[in-house]
Specification:
Blueprint: H1 11-18, H2 20-23, E1 31-37, H3 42-50, H4 55-58, E2 64-70, E3 75-76, E4 82-83, H5 88-103, H6 107-122, H7 131-135, H8 141-146, H9 150-164, E5 175-178, E6 181-182, H10 190-197, H11 204-212, E7 219-221, E8 227-229, H12 238-244
Parallel strand pairs: 1-2
Antiparallel strand pairs: 1-5, 3-4, 5-6, 7-8
Helix pairs in contact: 1-10, 3-6, 5-6, 5-9
Length: about 250
């Protein structure tokens, strides 16, 4: 789970101020957004249900190309067996969600199913995950035949390879990468990063975000007690950024 930052304004404000001109640039290519997560991690569940789900309603999908990677902090043994951070049932649900992505490549379809499953997890009803087939009006056959099968195992192993190949390596989950750059513990503000990177006409979500954080003279206070005026933020180097973005070292 990611550590929570204190005593500074969201980087969403920073991005809208620094990158306002970039959002309006010409072009229509969508911004790649990769979500590395695990099915029973409380922070992953919260992100999927309470944050990621919003983009399917607010129009950000017009600017974002979203990929889900259900693996997280799992490990693979020498014989190819997968063990998961939150136990065997997490491995089952990770594999179920991997099979859903494989069965229904359309993001709107497989996310609808995954969001349903994660909402059940949030309410401690994860054993009822099969009810999501009916709730989403989906044929259960492709997923039921996939999860726990050799094909399902290959899917999870492939997601493991993708996760382990991250540069820099992920430190916790959810691990959100926008336009090739990890957001560390500011992942909940991912929409602002998408808006900054998108070169086409800003979708409604970006316009709303701009109105939510008007351009005013404010100060960001980093965790080391140093204050930065927005006018200076473009010049902050990596060493300062490391002070702002704190993480826990317990891997959660």
């Amino acid at each position: 789970m990611a550590a929570r930052l204190q005593h500074f304004l969201p980087l969403a404000v920073l991005l809208l101020l620094v990158g306002a001109g970039d959002v309006m640039a010409a072009g229509n290519g969508k911004v790649p957004v990769a979500i590395y997560y695990e099915s029973l991690c409380p922070d992953s569940v919260d992100f999927v249900v309470n944050h990621l789900a919003k983009i399917f309603k607010d129009g950000l999908l017009d600017a974002a190309d979203v990929t889900l990677v259900p693996y997280g902090n799992a490990k693979v043994s020498a014989n190819g067996a997968i063990s998961c951070q939150h136990g065997p049932y997490e491995c089952i649900l990770n594999n179920v969600e991997a099979c859903a992505i494989d069965a229904w490549p359309d993001l709107n379809v497989h996310f609808g199913f995954i969001n349903c499953v994660e909402d059940l997890v949030m309410n401690n009803k994860q054993e009822e995950w099969e009810s999501c087939f009916k709730k989403q009006n989906l044929d259960p056959k492709p997923v039921m035949e996939c999860y726990g099968s050799e094909h399902g195992q290959k899917l999870s192993l492939e997601y493991g390879k993708q996760t382990d190949a991250l540069v820099p390596p992920h430190k916790y989950v959810p691990w959100v990468v926008v336009d090739g750059e990890p957001l560390y513990d500011d992942y909940e503000n991912f929409e602002a990063y998408v808006c900054k990177a998108y070169k086409g006409h800003p979708p409604k979500a970006c316009q709303e975000l701009s109105r939510q954080y008007p351009i005013v003279q404010q100060v960001v206070k980093a965790s080391n007690g140093v204050s930065y005026d927005f006018a200076d933020l473009e010049e902050l180097d990596d060493s300062v950024d490391g002070e702002i973005k704190m993480v826990r070292d317990d891997g959660n």
